[in-house]
Predict the structure.
Amino acid sequence: MVRCGSGPKPREGRGIFFLLGIVVGSFLNVCIHRIPRGESLVFPPSRCPLCGHRLAPADLVPVLSYIWLEGRCRYCGQRISPRYPLVELATGLAFELLYRTCGLGPGLVTRLVLVSALLVVAFIDARHYRIPNEIVVFLAIAGVALNFWTRELSWWQVPGGAAVGGGILGALALLSRGGMGEGDVKLAAATGLYLGPGRQALAIFLAALFGAVVGGVLVLLGRKRRRDPIPFAPFLAAGTMVACLWGDLLWLFYLSRAGLA
Ligand SMILES: [Zn+2]
C-alpha cells in the first residue's frame, strides 16, 4: 500500500459509500454472529439472535430498524445488542472516509475489503477472545490477489509486510508467553500483505500504543485487572486503518522531527 489517493479527490457521490457501508455492515453483523459458531453465512435466512424468529425485510433495514423498534425484537420484545447498529454505522463511516481519501479506483476496493474483514475480526476477538482462521485465510488470499490487480506494492513488499507483521508479533508472543496469541501473529502476517513492511511496522506500533492507553484506562476504572487478557485484534485493526490512511503523513512527521527529512 504505497499511497492512498492516486485518483482525483471525489467531489461527486458523497454519501453513497456511507449507504453502501451500512448495507455491507449489516452483512458483517451476520459474519460476527455466525462465524464463531461455525454456522453458514447464507442459510438459514436472518433470524432474531434471541428468540430465533425469522426476520421480515422491514426488520432488516440497517440502523433504521433498530431505532424504529427501539432496540427490541419485534417478536419477543427482548433487547437487541447495540452492536448491530454500531457495526453498521462504523462500516458506513469507514467506507465514506476511505472513498473521500482514496477516490474511486482499485486501491479503494482493496481498502474496503481490508476494513470489512478487520471489523469482523475486531468484534469477534473483543467478544470471544479468538481470531477465526477462516477470516485470516480470506484476508491473506484476497490481499495477494488484489495486489496482482492493483500493483500498489512491489513484489517484495507483499511478503516483506507479512514477515514484519508475523515476525514482530511472533517475537512478542514468545516473550509474553501467551499474552499474545497465535491468532494475533497470523492476523498481523495477513494484514502485512496489504501494507508492506514500513507501514506494517507503523501499524503495529500504533496498535501497541492504542492497546496500552485503552488497557491503562480500563485498569484505572477498575474494569480490568492488570493481568487480565485484552484482545489485540481491535487495536491492530485501528492501527492498520490509521497506517493505511495517513501512514505517509505520519512517517514524514516522524522523519522531520528526527531531523532526517
Ligand atoms: Zn426475538
